[in-house]
Design goal:
Helix content is about 80%, strand content about 0%. The protein has about 180 residues and is mainly α. The radius of gyration is 22 Å and the shape is flat.
Length: about 180
Amino acid sequence: MPQLFYRTAGAVLLTLALAVSPAIAQQPAKPAAPAPTATTAQPSPQQISLARDVVLYSGIARSFETVVPQYFDQISANLTRTRPELVQDLKVVMAGLKPEFDKRVDEMIDNAARIYAARLTEQQLKDAATFFKSPSGVAYTQVQPALMNDLFPAMQAWQKQLSEDMVTRIRAEMKKKGHEI
């Protein structure tokens, strides 16, 4: 489960980075006003509503929506591995519980909206929502899962090579200073 959490969290962060880049690149350069933070400003209901739109239309909510079925699958696999006779009853129980846990997804979407609203101004949220509702934003959101599938292996390979290169260079520089590591 921790791997699933980190992968989901990584997907959310990468999604945010990819989502914000095109929207920012399309805007003319202007001095950035400091964004409100949770400690300096209380988001308005309008900001939270706009932020919820951003979470939903950007595809970030999909990351939350996959967690419930994945957890059900993991629980089922763990329980039925040693108790295969539970399969049918477990399916019935999980189907009955699914609506209850799907509501938890809405809770996370609301939490994400409050987090966005605390970090972005109303205008920034309007701009982001407008982008994600536009034809380009919809297209971006539709290809996002494929982008993530392509980016994660590329990112892992890049991280591995970067790490190896850093260690090699640090060792070389430390050797120049008389240290073997």
